[in-house]
User: Fold this.
Amino acid sequence: MTAIDAASALNRGFNLLVTSILGLAGLAFGTVGFTEKDLTDKLDDFGLLAMGVITLVWYLMGSNRTKRTVVPVVLIVVALAVQFVGVGFEHDDKEAFGDNIGGLFLFIPAVITVIYQYWRTGKLLAAAGG
Assistant:
């Protein structure tokens, strides 16, 4: 395997990791938005659905799959921010608040993992000369 192939494989795996997290989270939380009553309760759920769709579209466009870029890190950090907005909007509504806690339990470790993986793959690529 050449250095270019290895770099493409590392980048593709990283980008697919983030796309999978945000795609599945968007699907899971986005469907909750259809059961919410208030518009403010729906914003975070549909925001996460939008983040999943945006990430999937980004991944499938051109050669983004195999590029090393900070875009996936930014997308997952934005998804965490959307979840925090939901906490702010729904903290006084017990019926709507439950999915926000679950979202934080998903996104906080995911952001840490993604940032670590981005840093780690960068070190691996630098060591390989890619």
